[in-house]
Amino acid sequence: MSLHPALAAVRRGVRRGVADLGPGARLLVACSGGADSLALASATVFEARDHGWYVVGVTVDHGLQEDSAERAERVVGQLAALGVDETVSARAAVDAPGLGPEAASRAARYALLEEVRERLEAETVLLGHTRDDQAETVLMGLARGSGGRSIAGMRRTFDHYRRPLLDVSHDDTVTACQVEGLEVWEDPHNADDSFTRVRVRRRVLPVLEDELGPGVTESLARTADLVRADMELLDAYAERALADVTVEEGLAVEAMTTLEAPIRTRVLRAAAVAAGAPPGETFLQHVVAVDALVTDWHGQKWVDLPGHLRAVRRDGVLAFERVDGTP
User: Fold this and answer.
1) Strands of 303-305's sheet in order across
2) Which one, 239, 263, 277, 315, has the greatest CB density within 10 A?
3) Dihedral over alpha carbons 25, 170, 92, 30 (to 10 degrees)
4) 148 pLDDT band (50/70/90 cuts)?
5) DSSP-derived 3-state class of residue 313
6) In terms of pTM, does the model score above 0.85?
7) Do the Cβ atoms of 161 and 53 come closer than 8 Å?
8) If pLDDT is split at 50, 70 and 90, which confidence band does 237 have?
9) In DSSP terms, which residues pair with 319 in a beta bridge?
């Protein structure tokens, strides 16, 4: 009996995404109970049989819905039934002043996943983002005018995290779950049009597909791959430049003026993020405003940044300070 194409696509994504891991490797699979993460968990368990991996299924309860604890318990049961070696369920405290609900939930989720990863000494954490998520990210970046960083979309790997399904469609994960008889949880937030990503998914992308023809989602995701290599090279140059212009109090303005604009703006963004500005909330307009403190200085007081941060030019140094004045 031949393997269903959707199931094959998901398993192939996992196989390629973790091909470098040796026998005995510990993998965490973040699972919400939705189609993408359930399909990922199932495929990871399947592939682990041939590779000797130890698979831990992790579900995070954000406590944002009345039945969230019961749902987390159901997901743990599903993960156990799939055959993971261990399950972990934990409640995340979503409390991040200055961040929107999506960003706050994401920050809490990653903090908890990292805590679990360190405790279990796992090599990597697998996330269930698909090609559709990538296309939505690219499209929102284009709409915001956030530059190449947003157009490059989500990274396939970063730190200890991997996204093996970025070449797999959401339709395939849904079908894979149906083929395997897995009961999928539909997050009500995914139908809430108050969220920008939901409007992009439910309204904008379908219109583009209708008006421009099929394949828009694939094209947007492919654009991310094409742009990311260039972005990573520029980021590497910027990392070296940041080290060169850093002084005890902040960034040396005179040294900053010698940098080419694409490198300088990356240095400024990296410095802001290192000082506490949330990466997902720090956009091009913030970086441009800070850059003006270097290239168009006429006595501006400061530039307000996300995360209760401000950039201040003082005595030839660009400093990033908390709003209360604490560096």
Assistant:
1) 246-247, 250-252, 317-322, 309-314, 303-305
2) 277
3) -10
4) confident
5) strand
6) no
7) no
8) very high
9) 312
Q: Which domains does the chain have, with CATH numbers?
A: 5-212 (3.40.50.620), 248-322 (3.30.465)
User: With bands split at pLDDT 50, 70 and 90, how would you rate the model's confidence at 183?
Assistant: very high
The rounded distance, in Å, linking the Cα atoms of 284 and 224 is: 18
Q: Are 137 and 151 in contact (CB under 8 A)?
A: no
- Give the closest residue to 44 by CA, choosing from 65, 71, 19, 62: 19
Q: Which two three-digit tokens encode residue 292?
A: 């003006």
Greatest extent of the chain over all pairs of C-alpha atoms, in Å:
74
Give the position of tokens 């405790």.
Answer: 119
Sheet of 161-162: strands edge to edge? 86-91, 54-61, 26-30, 124-126, 161-162, 157-158
Strand partners, 168: none
Radius of gyration of the chain (CA): 22
Burial of residue 173, with CB atoms counted within 10 A of its CB: 0-12 exposed, 13-18 middle, 19 or more buried:
buried
Mean per-residue pLDDT over the chain, rounded? 89
Q: Is 171 exposed, middle or buried (0-12, 13-18, 19+ CB in 10 A)?
A: middle
Task: Tell me, rounded to whole angstroms, the distance of Cα 7 from its chain centroid.
Answer: 24
Q: Please write down the long-range contacts of 142-146, taking CB distance under 8 Å and 24 or more positions apart.
A: 144/283, 144/284, 145/284, 146/283, 146/284
* DSSP state string for 2-64: PPPHHHHHHHHHHHHHTTT--TT-EEEEE--SSHHHHHHHHHHHHHHHHHT-EEEEEEEE---
Beta strands in the chain (DSSP E): 26-30, 54-61, 86-91, 124-126, 157-158, 161-162, 246-247, 250-252, 303-305, 309-314, 317-322
Percentage of the chain beyond pLDDT 90 is: 67
Distance CA(161)–CA(29), nearest Å, equals: 10
At 225, which amino acid appears?
D
Length of the chain: 327
pLDDT band at 286 (very low <50, low <70, confident <90, very high): very high
pLDDT confidence tier of residue 11, bands split at 50, 70 and 90: very high
